[in-house]
Amino acid sequence: MIEFINNMDTLRNELYNNSRDIIKLLEERREIAGKIGECKVAGGLKIRNREREIEILKSLSYDHFTEFVLNLLFEFSINYEVLNRNSADSVKYSRILNGVKYIEYRSERDNLIFLLSRILNPGTVVLCDYHEISKILISAGHHIANAIEKPDLVIYMDGRENQEIIIKDGSMLISENFLASKANIYTVEIQ
Ligand SMILES: O=C(O)C(=O)C[C@]1(C(=O)O)C=C[C@@H](O)C=C1
């Protein structure tokens, strides 16, 4: 028994060191992505570059797990690049959601989806038929509903009935219906 416990302690130490190294590398990666983001802003380029992502996926991913991890890394970079750009841009648009009946925000699609992930309270259950949005919402700590769950929020990318949030043509529309269910929304100031 003692031997098992010693063995587990050793493994835990190894795992701890491994986690520490991963975190350090992730921080480094995020810094580099931030610098790429600055170049993109300077060059007027879009933050997401799916061709580059596919290039990386093709050369580095060899199974579902590595593909999943790489996709998460891309989302982390994008969140960071967008954050950087927003603070660099200073306040362009500012509005308090609380008490507003309807809101429309216009921006690049990635930026909108990122903003949406921040508007929702952590852990919101979302029914969403769009993979890119789902990925960003999951990385921001939200859940994607499956058929049995009752979602807090329904997002569709195009005009369907009962939509609560529409993201279309560089514009995000948050409906009155959704704003009425304030339980799911932070009072946020949008930049
Ligand atoms: O290479 C870029 O353009 C980046 O911004 C970096 C990165 C990445 O994390 O690897 C992030 C977002 C892009 O969609 C593609 C790749």
TrEMBL record:
- Chorismate mutase domain residues are 2-85
Q: From the UniProt record, which GO molecular function terms apply? A: chorismate mutase activity
In terms of superkingdom, the source organism counts as Archaea
Protein's GO biological process = chorismate metabolic process
Tell me the protein's name.
Answer: Chorismate mutase
